[in-house]
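To whoever picks this up:

The parser on our side crashed when reading a file containing two proteins. I've narrowed it down to the boundary between the first structure block and the second sequence. Both blocks are reproduced below exactly, byte for byte. First block:
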Amino acid sequence: MLEEIPSIHTLSWNSFSEKEFISSITKYNNLSTPKLDKLLWKHLKCIVKDKSYLKSIVNIANTCFELNHWPSHFRTSTTIIILKSNKESYNTSKAFRPIILLNTLSKLIEKVIGYHLQFYVISNNFIHSSQLGDLKQRSSVNANIALTHFIHTR
């Protein structure tokens, strides 16, 4: 008999926390290019130092998720094409690099949502234990440990 796998909508969802936003925003580089809303990460980092602004951002994220609605302002993007340096010819698409600019706040909220989804996916065993790439606590060090363990048990 097949076990029914719950959808992401049936899982209990904890509200986002201020700590998650602080943790996520500190990982962004202050020297990155301005986003679609012309807001730099260093500006947003200063804004979230004020607890009332941080609470408002967390409230926006929680409300978006509870209402299952992502505002159109957060979905708007602009693509800028940049020439790659030292190319002999710019006649092919490989000579260009597209950069997509999104709203800075939406990128931050999406990052926190991604951490939540990753937690639920891993904690509910939706990902095979051999899947190690791009997952928290499943780095190349973990892959080496798993491989070493596999070799020694054979």
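<<boundary where parser fails>>
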Amino acid sequence: MKRIEVFRDQLKSIAIKEPGEYLVILKEAGAEVDIRGAFKIDQKNKIEVSVVIHHQAPNTRANTTLRGVAGDSAHISLKGKIIIDHACGNSNSFLTERVLLLSNQAHAECVPDLEIHTDDVKCSHAASITRIPEAHLFYLMSRGLSRSEAEKLIVEGFLS
């Protein structure tokens, strides 16, 4: 598990580029972090990404966004958990997990979790798994793009 500690007076941006387990700890009051992860897999590959955001001090902020794209018969698993300890009021933490499936054989799971031990916090999570809407592909194809070019453009936009 990769452990990352965040202290006050440093807005930390974390880019998760590899599958695995990550523990991000907000250690001091005033600590802030922005966590982003984007993954694309295909064939029969499988990846798992697990991120725990642990608020150990009051007045901390975290924003976490995980995105994945699975094609062919690939499987992607995104798991995020926010923990806010006792006496860590006035903390804000948001977790978003989004997956785009490119085939009927691709699989995904999104598992957001909250563990809040105090009052006076703003904390939420969101998760979705979807396919590219045909209307989006049709629109781009009506502008002269092939289906594969349209799909590629949508995937690039989704991951950026």
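After patching the parser it read the second block fine. The longest helix spans residues 147-159. The radius of gyration is 18 Å.
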